[in-house]
Amino acid sequence: MRRQRPRKAARNRSRHRGATLSSSDTAVATVAADGLITGVSAGMATITAAYSGRSATFAVQVA
Known about the structure:
Layout: H1 9-13, E1 20-23, E2 29-31, E3 37-39, E4 43-51, E5 54-62
Antiparallel strand pairs: 1-4, 2-3, 4-5
C-alpha cells in the first residue's frame, strides 16, 4: 500500500502569484500576500481573493 505524502501548504499558497488577498475585518482575521490567514480575535470576516479580473470570497469564523 502506498502512503501519500501530505501536501505542503506553502506550495499551495504560492501557486497563484499575483493574486490580491484581503480581509473585510483585520481586527478578526488578517491575510498575508502568500495566502496565510491568521485569526486575531473572535468574530466573522470575509476573505476576498482577486486574480486576473476575477474574484472569490469566503467567510471565516474565528472562535
